[in-house]
Amino acid sequence: MLAGRQALTGCVAAQRAGRLHDRGWSVPATGVGWALALVSFGVAAAAGRSVVLLVVAVVLLDVAIQSLNILNFTRLFAVAGDACSRVNTATITANFLAGAAGSAAAGLLWSAGGWGRGEPGRCRALGVRAGRVGGRTARTPAHHHTQSLVTAAHRPLA
């Protein structure tokens, strides 16, 4: 039941992001999406053993990522014109490859060190890095850079 509500929150956020794009607020909304993703990392880092804060962090991250996906695809398809199917294929392929690389890196890091006391600091550093990448690439699809973060966020804690 909780997972269904969390998914519904992401769907509603995606719909609202589309409306913001239609009103000409795509770029500012993208900035808000990135900020929300960074806030979710902060909440996750502060969660400790709190399941409630962890769920809040996951919902915030889902809202951010769903919104960024809608905003970026809408802008990308507006520019692509006749090449929509090729652009979609390239985008989804790059998204998959970035997610696979993030999963592989997370698996190696987990094997090397597990989930120790230093993880909250590493998560904050990763979030800051994602923010810097997002700030530099505001005109490119942001979900390419966040997919590995999403994949890493779904790793089990224990």
**Helical amount:** over 70%
| SSE class | mainly alpha
Sketch the topology as an H/E string, one letter per element: HHHHHH
Shape: globular
Characterise this structure.
This protein is mainly α and 158 residues long. It has one domain (2-153). Helix content is 84%, strand content 0%. The chain contains six helices and no strands. The protein has helices spanning 2-22, 26-47, 51-80, 84-113, 119-136, 143-153. Helix 1 runs parallel beside helix 3, helix 2 (26-47) runs antiparallel to helix 5 (119-136) and helix 3 (51-80) runs antiparallel to helix 6 (143-153). The longest helix is centred in the middle third of the chain and has 30 residues, at 51-80.
Compose a concise summary of this entry.
The protein is 84% helix and 0% strand. It is built from 6 helices and no strands.
SSE inventory with pairings:
Elements: H1 2-22, H2 26-47, H3 51-80, H4 84-113, H5 119-136, H6 143-153
Task: Give the tags.
158 residues; mainly alpha; disordered C terminus
